[in-house]
Amino acid sequence: MIEEREVSEWAKQISSGDRLAIARALRLIEDTRAEAEEDARALLGSLYPLPSPAHRIGITGPPGVGKSTLIGSLSRAFVARGFRVGVLAVDPSSVRSGGALLGDRARMNHTPSASNKDWKLFVRSLPTAGASGGLSGASFGALRVLGAACDIVLLETTGVGQNEIDIQHAVDTVTLLIQPGSGDSLQFIKAGVMEIPDLLVVHKADLESAERTFSDAKAALSLKASTLGEESLVTLQVSARTGEGVDALIEALVQRFKGLDLRSRREKADSTWAFELLRGELGREAIRKLGGERSVLDRLTEKARQSVPPLEMVWDLRKELQA
């Protein structure tokens, strides 16, 4: 168990942008040993009271839509505007090592900085470790670490289907990518994943069929919005290959962040994430013993309002079950 003074100093190093301290923290969060979990809990607890103004942006969509390529373009554009950027790419796990396969990271085309503190872009891959929902169990802790050190954190999920929507509990803005000519534009609009995005991007806008896909998506979204009495989803055309629409997407992301009730969104996200972690780890029977879903969610929501980190919430309820 790491001493409290060392944990506090470690948290300060992360917040100051010490890249070695960040890398060490991310390794700890991925470590599944019991003693590592205790240290990770202590570290995240120390990070939690520190300011975390970073805009956490989730990039999701089906396999092959170009998530990694777009994140590469976005990260370079954000860096050019003076932002410090962290990228978390959730990759499929290797069947041999259990680690991330690094396919997404290879497509981002970034050049690591040689300096420990004078850096503008930090890229890290996380393995799914068998988790469904498009994210890994370590994603929340990794987001918290990079959020303490960066201005922008870009989180890429694995290729998602209709029901893989965990990303909504982890980020401030969900950006869903669809691609032209694949028949997925209307399919995704009917899917459960369409309940979570804040922005819809028709990627690969340089392809001939992009305009048709864009028009179809806008028409379908407008009809859906008017039927449900909602505001229509912001829809953009972007090509990471040519750069078309990248500036417009960045502007849309910046404007959205300015209008967010960040405290409320993160409190809800923290409590929901903790609940999903608890249910995934201990099962529905444990939730029932703790008073049922509604009772557990209410308790977690109250803890979130008190700025209790999600891992701390899970830890406390686990100890309650074992008592």
How would you portray this structure in words?
This protein has 323 residues and is α/β, with parallel strands linked by helices. It folds into 3 domains: 1-50, Single alpha-helices involved in coiled-coils or other helix-helix interfaces (Up-down Bundle); 51-260, P-loop containing nucleotide triphosphate hydrolases (Rossmann fold); 261-323, no CATH class. It has helices at residues 4-15, 19-30, 34-47, 67-80, 103-106, 139-149, 184-189, 210-228, 246-258, 262-282, 284-289, 293-305, 310-322; strands at 55-60, 85-91, 121-127, 152-156, 173-178, 199-203, 234-238. The chain has a 7-stranded parallel beta sheet with strand order 3-2-4-1-5-6-7, sandwiched between helices. Helix 8 links the parallel strand 6 (199-203) and strand 7. The longest helix has 21 residues, at 262-282. The two termini are 22 Å apart.
Summary of the model, kept short:
Helix content is 49%, strand content 13%. It is of the alpha/beta class.
Strand arrangement across the biggest beta sheet: 3-2-4-1-5-6-7
Mean pLDDT: 83
Task: Kindly provide the name of the CATH class of the largest domain.
Answer: Alpha Beta
Sequence of secondary-structure elements: HHHEHEHEHEEHEHEHHHHH
Portion in helices: 40-55%
Strand content: 5-15%
Question: What's the count of strands?
Answer: 7
How many helical elements? 13
Looking at the structure, the CATH topology of the largest domain is Rossmann fold
Report the radius of gyration as a whole number of Å: 20 Å
**Biggest β-sheet: count, sense, barrel?**
7 strands, parallel
| Low-pLDDT windows of residues | 93-101
Helix and strand content put the structural class at alpha/beta
> What's the CATH H-level superfamily name of the largest domain?
P-loop containing nucleotide triphosphate hydrolases
* Coarse shape: globular
